[in-house]
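step 3/5: co-fold with adenosine monophosphate
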Amino acid sequence: MNIHILLGPPGSGKGTQAKRLIGNFPLLHLSTGDILRDAVSKGTVLGQKVKTTMAEGKLVDDNTINGLVFDRLKGETQDVLFDGYPRTLQQAEALQVFIAQEGHQLGRVVNVEVPQEVLESRVVGRRVCSNAACGAIFHLETKPSQVSGVCDLCGSPLKHRSDDTSESFKQRMNEFNATFLPLLSFYKTSPGFVPFNGNRNSEDVFQSLLTLFTETH
Ligand code: AMP
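step 4/5: write tokens
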């Protein structure tokens, strides 16, 4: 199994692009953020444990996240596209051990780069479908839904993620900046590492990713 990773700050478009890419390639999209949000909305034990941490824009502890991911991957045969994982050096090291133990391969590590000043407006204006099975992502200004507050794809209400406020965004950027450089150093020498310009319109970004993953598959 090949394991691909989308790296990038909150608002870099990882989630939007991952959701589009899986329509074109036989990839399993694993977003730790989506899995955790689903757990919070269902009120599971995991959800109750991480609810406050997430709402404050802080990172959930590495052991919880690694356990969640490795459980999810057990028995999986399809190639995987990670979005939002790994987020810390400890998670990257644990994933590396898991990959070696299970006989998987690290594929593309795409570092989606977007200047910090662009990110906040992307995040604060983001609206997401409340139906977890759909999860479509819109933006009040750059990608509004056809009917205000209603998902174009499945008709469910759109919602503003509780951690997409300006205050929570700042905390998430602090977390990102504190953990990202060691993560980048860890992956920079991987053969599959690709620096990637994410500061373009969504369609251009998608076309470049399509080309990249077409070369990979
Ligand atoms: P995201 O949707 O990727 O922006 O994640 C939303 C929130 O979920 C983050 O702000 C963290 O609280 C939590 N989270 C998601 N993925 C991870 C991870 N790999 N490590 C730690 N916390 C995470």
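step 5/5: annotate
The beta strands are 2-7, 27-31, 79-83, 105-113, 126-129, 137-139, 158-159, 193-197.
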